[in-house]
Amino acid sequence: MAFTYTYYGHGTHGLKIGEHKIVIDPYFNNNPSSPVKVEDVEADYILVSHGHNDHVEDVEALAKRTGALVISNNKIEDWFNKKGLEKTLGQMIGGKVSHPFGYLKFTYALHGSDLPDGSNGGMAAGLLITTEDKQRIYFACDTALFGDMRLIGDAGITLAVLPIGDYFTMGPEDALKAVKLIEPKNVVPCHYNTWPQLAQDGEAWAKSVEKETRTKAHVLKGGESLTF
Ligand code: NI
Ligand code: MN
């Protein structure tokens, strides 16, 4: 079963797996790299990796309009429940849950997770999705480099989406090391060029990946898609 990945800029992503529409970390309306507004996006599932504003800001608007199931950790789930979102599911790091689109495992991420009002947002996570035909998509989400990325890569990753922006997450050098640990077939860089402190050369990074690894690197502009 083919899947389509869409980069909306910064840390916001779309996936279409069969008929299932998934949005990861919806941040559209104040995201300088997104060509679309939250009003224009459809979703059946919203996955939330951690509590930072640039990952949760448009969750409520998207969930309320579309009726999508919001999947996050339990602390973030509680926070959205208090805001009136009822269709939610809390998952914990290390556990995988079967959903109609495939298995979703929350993975370790080395990052904070405070919510915008200062509430405890639990532990930051990455997301590992395994489709029915065993294609694996790994969103590292906001994280520093960590050696156990090698374990995440062990099963064979079709597509890894990795931050390269530096400042808040891995920068280009560490993200190249991450590619070497994960050994995905394909990689897309994200979480860069959103603001001046995240300025990075995505094309140069992609060249370094293809020179030093066997991974194919795809540099996408906000709104561009790839089908695998
Ligand atoms: Ni963050
Ligand atoms: Mn972020």
Instruction: Summarize the amount of helix as a percent range.
Output: 10-25%
Q: What do we call the CATH topology?
A: Metallo-beta-lactamase, Chain A
Please report the number of helical segments. Answer: 6
CATH architecture: 4-Layer Sandwich
Structural class computed from helices and strand pairing: alpha/beta
Instruction: Spell out which ligands are present.
Output: nickel (II) ion, manganese (II) ion
What can you see in these coordinates?
The chain contains six helices and 14 strands. It has helices at 53-56, 59-66, 74-82, 149-153, 172-182, 202-212; strands spanning 3-7, 13-17, 20-24, 45-47, 69-72, 88-90, 96-99, 102-108, 125-130, 136-139, 159-163, 186-190, 216-217, 225-227. It is an alpha/beta fold. It has one domain: 4-Layer Sandwich (Metallo-beta-lactamase, Chain A). It is globular, with a radius of gyration of 16 Å. β10, α4 and β11 form a beta-alpha-beta unit. α5 packs parallel to α6 (202-212). It binds nickel (II) ion (NI) and manganese (II) ion.
Could you outline the blueprint of secondary structure elements for this entry?
Layout: E1 3-7, E2 13-17, E3 20-24, E4 45-47, H1 53-56, H2 59-66, E5 69-72, H3 74-82, E6 88-90, E7 96-99, E8 102-108, E9 125-130, E10 136-139, H4 149-153, E11 159-163, H5 172-182, E12 186-190, H6 202-212, E13 216-217, E14 225-227
Parallel strand pairs: 3-4, 4-5, 5-6, 10-11, 11-12, 12-13
Antiparallel strand pairs: 1-2, 1-14, 2-3, 7-8, 8-9, 9-10
Helix pairs in contact: 5-6
The chain binds nickel (II) ion and manganese (II) ion (MN).
